[in-house]
Design a protein that fits this description.
Blueprint (H helix, E strand, L loop, with lengths): L9 H8 L5 H9 L4 E2 L2 E2 L12 E2 L7 H8 L9 E4 L3 E6 L15 H8 L7 E2 L8 E7 L2 H12 L4 E9 L8 E3 L2 E5 L5 E5 L11 E6 L5 E3 L11 E10 L6 H8 L13 H9 L7 E9 L6 E5 L4 H11 L11
Parallel strand pairs: 7-15
Antiparallel strand pairs: 1-2, 1-3, 4-5, 5-7, 6-7, 8-14, 8-15, 9-12, 10-11, 12-14, 13-14, 15-16
């Protein structure tokens, strides 16, 4: 195991190494014990370390898939919010995966490495869903990666998102404390659901919600005019105290207020109408992030402005009112 892979979860490492192999198969060989780390069975969440020996059973992919996986990612830089010799924080656009994997040949990290061939070390500190925009941290040193990942794991970071949800969010609903369970569908698609507090498979998940703008956004229903029959939406500031997969999306949807544009947990028919009005992505943006600098200990506070396409949509939805300005939130 080389330095570039140390600290990764076993499942993420295998998905990266076994490009073109379906995620379902990767998880199947882990569960069956066919994957060995230092001659022992290992679970998907084990983190690999420098010097570990990972043994795999024979796996096959088609020649076309294998050839595609070998193609280099196109070099690409992203808007930088902060950078020094230890780390960089970029503003990830929606629609771009953070890394290559099942069905995705490359992501932010592969493109960044191609754009910076002189960089000896570039590794993702955390993740964002493909359709989520906003702040993403990349470590430039192993020591920075370990320190920052420890901060995320110990909940020492502050992560706040902007989300536009359907309906009128109740002002008194400020905390969602519901366990979440991650599972794979038959087609290998990853999904998450709320489970009972005593469910042994449930992971405790805590989301804090605050109404970011008290003005509700009136959005027309399909086939309706700009008056009768209009639906509303609420812009929220959402802070996560735990970092579960799809946590914000599932928690808000379970409360009856799905994120607009969410193609997994949202209102699919309404999403089609919203796309015609200009919302062609999920309205979820990693807006603010606070953490301690891994070398100096200084508290760093970053903010990524709401993307232009989301600003334009809220302006259209609220017209003739002025657009939402992130500096007001």
């Amino acid at each position: 195991m080389g330095e570039e892979s140390a600290g990764q979860r076993l499942d993420n490492y295998l998905i990266r190494v076994l490009k073109g192999v379906p995620k379902t198969h990767v998880y199947r060989i882990i569960r069956s014990g066919e994957v060995r780390v230092n001659k022992g069975r290992a679970s998907a969440d084990v983190r690999v370390a420098i010097g570990d020996v990972v043994r795999l059973p024979p796996v096959r992919v088609s020649e076309a898939v294998a050839a595609k996986a070998q193609m280099p990612a196109p070099a690409r830089e992203f808007p930088i919010l902060f950078e020094d010799e230890h780390l960089l924080a970029l503003d990830k656009p929606a629609g771009v995966a953070v890394h290559g994997g099942s069905g995705v040949s490359f992501g932010v990290i592969e493109q960044l490495r191609q754009a910076r061939p002189e960089a000896k070390f570039l590794e993702l500190v955390h993740r964002l869903d493909r359709e989520t925009s906003g702040i993403l941290l990349v470590a430039k040193k192993r020591s920075a990666l370990t320190n920052l990942q420890d901060q995320f794991r110990e909940r020492e970071t502050g992560k706040t998102y902007l989300a536009l949800v359907g309906g009128t969010w109740p002002a008194n609903k400020k905390v969602i404390d519901q366990p979440l369970h991650k599972y794979l569908q038959a087609d290998g698609e990853r999904r998450v659901k709320v489970v009972a507090k005593d469910d042994p498979d449930g992971m405790r998940s805590i989301t804090l919600v605050k109404i970011a703008d008290p003005v509700l956004l009136p959005l027309p229903l399909a086939g309706e005019g700009r008056g009768e029959g209009r639906r509303t939406a609420t812009l929220l500031e959402v802070t996560i105290k735990t970092g579960r997969t799809h946590q914000i999306r599932v928690h808000l949807a379970s409360a009856g207020h799905a994120i607009l544009g969410d193609d997994k947990y949202g209102d699919f028919e309404w999403n089609k109408e919203l796309a015609k009005q200009g919302l062609k992505r999920m309205f979820l943006h990693a807006w603010r992030l606070q953490f301690d600098h891994p070398a100096t200990g200084e508290r760093i506070a970053l903010q990524a402005p709401l993307p232009a396409e989301l600003q334009q949509f809220t302006h259209h939805a609220r017209s003739p009112s002025p657009p939402i300005r992130p500096d007001r939130l």
